[in-house]
Design a protein that fits this description.
heterodimer, A: mainly beta, Jelly Rolls, 5-stranded antiparallel sheet, 4-stranded antiparallel sheet, globular, B: mainly beta, 11 strands
Chain lengths: 156, 151
């Protein structure tokens, strides 16, 4: 069994009048038990150089690292490796596999939603439901300037 | 200006034949600037004993949403110690994933409003898998958030 841990530390001496010093470590386990997650996509580095929405991490079968089982335990790490504080990459999730940026903002039929924006140097770590075709994780740079995204999936 | 940093360490000596030792640290800035995020909901701790989905931050209401498409970071942790218990995290009606016992997540949040009749909006919701009681912690660090008018 593999043991993989993820530790977050949030700290600030001046965000509030009481210093913030939060640290939490989790072991990445399979759904419903204490067995460690055994599979990973590896750390992938992707170059983006257009202000278009693309599938960064597709759900469903056919991925070169295997199939992430839906409704189980999976984690996704994403980092904007750039240094720009003005260019962001909009990270979304949903049914966007066609590359069409149909958002729930404008269509009742759409299931795609923007989670948030990663500016240069920012990272995120989220659980992933990985439902086929409706849980694609998308990236949409706000400008066409070259940016490199690193991502990694951990799954059972 | 406040200075808040978020650090991540991912490590494993046996997931791969090459040890995993990944670290990432960044300062939390307002969108498009080098000015630090200066507001927070604070770290909330709640005990949930129903399998009802709940909004964990002020729900987004139509109109001028102060935090929409700006920079905000969300931290959520499931403090349960029972391996089978999880909370499902949803944005609008879109499931993101499940946080099992001991799991945490950290992500940006755009707080987007939708413009069609469903009025789902980009609220972050949490649904416990059991009604026997689970403790969850969550916090948002942001530059603006919507507080609905009192009724």
């Amino acid at each position: 069994m593999a043991t993989t841990t993820a530790t977050i530390t949030l700290s600030s001496s001046d965000l509030t009048s009481n210093a913030l010093s939060l640290s939490n470590t989790m072991t990445l386990t399979q759904a419903g038990n204490d067995t460690g997650i055994l599979n990973t996509s590896g750390l992938v580095r992707t170059r983006l150089a257009a202000a278009n929405q693309v599938d960064l991490i597709a759900s469903g079968a056919g991925q070169n690292y295997g199939t992430v089982t839906a409704d189980k335990s999976a984690k996704v790490y994403i980092r904007n490796t750039g240094t720009s504080t003005s260019q962001a990459v909009r990270i979304g999730i949903g049914n966007a596999s066609t590359g069409t940026a149909t958002t729930a903002q404008s269509s009742a039929a759409a299931t795609y939603w923007e989670l948030g924006r990663l500016y240069g140097g920012e990272w995120m770590l989220i659980p992933w439901i990985a439902t086929d075709n409706t849980s694609d994780i998308t990236a949409f740079p706000t400008t066409s300037a070259e940016v490199y995204i690193e991502w990694m999936v951990f799954f059972e | 200006m406040a200075t808040t940093t978020a650090s991540l360490t991912l490590s494993s000596s046996d997931l791969l034949s090459d040890a995993l030792s990944l670290s990432s640290t960044n300062t939390l800035y307002k969108a498009g600037t080098t000015t630090g995020l200066d507001q927070t909901t604070g770290l909330s701790r709640v005990y949930l004993d129903a399998t009802t989905n709940v909004d964990i931050f002020p729900p987004i209401v139509e109109g001028n949403i102060p935090g929409e498409n700006k920079n905000a970071k969300v931290y959520i942790a499931n403090l349960s110690t029972t391996a089978t218990e999880y909370v499902t995290i949803t944005l609008c009606s879109q499931v993101i994933g499940r946080l099992y016992a001991g799991d945490w997540m950290f992500m940006p949040w755009s707080m987007q409003e939708d413009t069609h009749s469903d009025n789902k909006h980009g609220d972050i919701e949490l649904t416990p898998s059991v009604d026997t009681g689970m403790t969850v912690e969550f916090m948002c660090i942001h530059e603006a958030i919507e507080y609905p008018a009192a009724v």
